[in-house]
């Protein structure tokens, strides 16, 4: 008899207008890493949320060590040794890292909080697992990647034996991903069991023992990873063959720049150096220029300065021949700028708005969305339905669906639909395929390539080296707030990019000036 630590049998879960899980079964062996694979909206996160007690199933049984259990809430799950790293972080932003990790399991002495032992344990675990964090930093002041580390440490702090990782690498750098893979193997070597939701087939091949595939809420099959190719798993997931490399024609950029940046400096905090220092580059119509680099080297502040979310301290930004250095966000949008943001919740969506309202955030004030000061719901709905159809955004109630209720991947596709549906002259895309499955990534890459071939300028910011090399025409590498390399993508290698990204190599200023 198999030694299953968790058994999900015939799990069914319904939401208004959609069946998220349809009679799904899954088993987790003791000490294994079991991957859960499926398209965006296939029901993976819902299934794991049922196991963690966030949702109650409408049918089916959950067993722990062969015994049926009832998990009414996450507290019950923790009592059973089940922990979860959520795709959408469950953190209190005005609490510190230390307070978030201890929340719900605080230690007290004589009725007062006692954090000394907790601090020592967190520091010890963060060092042991390569997840360095500052316990006293506010969550609101740390990067998305650091917030991911806090979520992982929350689970490790509770010493759970069954660990659910929901898209844990979506916001990590390649180096951090390698570290996490190593951590996961060490955890299973210690006897823990891991359920691992990911869209990245290479990660499944690297660490998983078995893989269960879902498609549109239904169970497709479970395979041994060592015996199954990535092509076979991707075909199980999307129901067709998927292209892993992008077949593209050479770029034919115009001579004139659609976006020109000169001497841009931004993001200075008192007592610290600026996050972006004297950066200059051009993006021409008909080309894709990618900003590559390890997270935290100024990419976020650069994008904020270009899109109007952060003021320029020095320098100038010109778009389509007009100086937009001091223009507000709406003025930049009106000139033809679109922005797919890094953080889809903070800057991409109003989560408690409907999908049709979110789709109209950039255009509600224009005709025909408003007439004589009154909004046209008919136009809103038709606009949302068209974008959802064109970009395969899946929702239970169409445009009336609340954005918060969408899967992470479909939230991302909704933002991409809104920004690319505007047919911008300049598209700034930051991690545009984060959290998307291979089929959706293939589709979005083709849409970005179509935008380039239609004469639009694309500035791509990505932490994924495969995406950088596959999609870009030119690559700018940022290190400590400066552009240290400007390379033709066809001539670049992952090894060379790694040297620039780590600061071990840089082009001299004369070469960079000549390129710009």
List keywords for this structure.
single chain, 516 residues, alpha/beta, Rossmann fold, 3 domains, six-stranded mixed beta sheet, 18 helices, 33% helix, 26% strand
Could you please describe the fold and organization of this structure?
By secondary structure, the chain is α/β, with parallel strands linked by helices. It has three domains: 4-238, P-loop containing nucleotide triphosphate hydrolases (Rossmann fold, 3-Layer(aba) Sandwich); 253-336 and 424-516, Rossmann fold, CATH 3.40.50.300; 348-423, no CATH class. It contains 18 helices and 24 strands. It has a six-stranded mixed beta sheet, sandwiched between helices. A hairpin with a 2-residue loop joins strand 16 and strand 17. It is globular.
Measured by DSSP, the beta-strand proportion falls in: 25-35%
How far apart the termini lie comes to 66 Å
Helix content: 25-40%
Largest sheet: 6 strands, mixed
CATH topology of the largest domain: Rossmann fold
Give the spatial strand order of the biggest sheet.
6-9-10-3-11-12
The total number of structural domains is 3
CATH architecture classification name of the largest domain: 3-Layer(aba) Sandwich
Q: CATH superfamily assignment of the largest domain?
A: P-loop containing nucleotide triphosphate hydrolases
On the 0 to 100 scale, the average pLDDT is: 89
Helix count, DSSP H or I runs of 4 or more residues: 18
The count of strands amounts to: 24
Anisotropy-based shape:
globular
Gyration radius, in Å:
24 Å
Overall structural class, as computed from helix and strand content, comes to alpha/beta
Low-confidence sequence ranges: none
CATH class of the largest domain: Alpha Beta
